[in-house]
Design a protein that fits this description.
There is one protein chain. The protein has one domain. It is built from 4 helices and 5 strands. It binds zinc ion (ZN). Zinc ion binds next to loops.
């Protein structure tokens, strides 16, 4: 039991930095309310209660992705709902790249999300500059300046 608790604490230290700044999180909630309906639900219901579990450097990728998704939905559904509204389930970093989990959408939106996830793989998660994966045990994408963060 003790070992497990220590492991969990260690994990939290490593992953603790992967949290988007509050004002950026609030901005995305305000601009894309339809996609963010899960943000303040209980942790039993959704992982979105943790917010955006990525560094600030990926904000632009996520903001552009969400903007393009909502624009596509609004256009497609201008007369009647033919594409289900996208709602976010979890946004996090895994093995050095963005993971954007959601419900709803169509193939077009799936493609945009795949492209965004791929761009995160060459974008410093701290500052948004060009980055590359480090070779460490915890794969992360960093520019030269943020190599150790
Ligand atoms: Zn950087």
């Amino acid at each position: 039991m003790r070992v497990r608790i220590e492991l969990e604490l260690a994990d939290r230290e490593v992953y603790g930095k992967n949290k988007m700044r509050q004002e950026l999180d609030e901005y995305l909630c305000k601009v894309y309310p339809k996609m963010m309906v899960n943000r303040n639900k209980d942790m039993q219901e959704t992982c979105m209660c943790w917010g955006f579990e990525v560094g600030d450097g990926w904000f632009n990728i996520i903001n552009q992705l969400m903007g393009n998704i909502q624009h596509h939905l609004d256009w497609k559904n201008r007369n009647e709902e033919v594409v289900p509204q996208v709602t976010l389930d979890q946004v996090k970093e895994k093995f050095g790249s963005l993971r954007f989990y959601y419900t709803g959408g169509d193939d077009y939106i799936r493609g945009m999300a795949t492209m965004a996830e791929s761009m995160s793989g060459v974008t410093c998660e701290v500052c948004g500059n060009i980055g590359e994966s480090n070779g460490g045990p915890w794969i992360r994408v960093r520019c030269k300046e943020h190599d150790n963060e």
